[in-house]
User: Fold this.
Amino acid sequence: MTMPRFLVHPSAVKGGKATLTGAQFHHAARVLRIKPGEIVALFDGAGKEYLARVESVGREEMRLDIVRETTTEGDSAFRLTVLQSIVKAPAMDLVLQKCSELGAARLVAVPTVRSTARIPADKAHARLQRWQRIANQSAQQCGRAGPMTVQIAANLDEALRIKDDPLIALHEEEKACGIADAAHRCRGLSSASVFIGPEGGFSPEEVQRLKESGAIFASLGPRILRAETAAITATALLMYELGDLGRA
Assistant:
């Protein structure tokens, strides 16, 4: 059985002691029912990893003794930003979880003309918090040193200001350049971005704006993939070609 692992803020670890509160405490104490004396793993998102023994479980916090401190190397030196056209909740949740597990450094949710979902302005903050929690939980499960960062862009122009260069844009009308060809053009770089559009494709105006930004248009092959499938596939291929996926 895998040892439970929890993300803690660096300030929650001090003097050989640690404290779990909030959602992390609830999951540890109420869902997993962890008891005093049990050993768990903690990580602070900044490269430090701890083995800790539960000292006490209160009503709102769990106190732990640090048994051992190490550093973790669960993140790739290559930084991949995924720009994802916003899709409906179940599919978006899947994209967040799997891109995080595959090693993407950041995911930016982008409203596009043909996006299948919209985020009302008054719900954007709550949606972002929820998506970041999914990324945090994924980081705990898969052994990352720190969670994938999640952001919401107001529009395409803002997304293009946020991205890391170079930008690979998946485009169903691209016939000459496959994603492996696009990855080859990014070799030796420390970062890049990939843009996954909606299932209806980018609008002509968006294609023109991407061209003006210097995007590399690429194809995932002859089959038409759902947006979430395309996002997971592209992230896996780019992290294999440019990151640490598949490396011992």
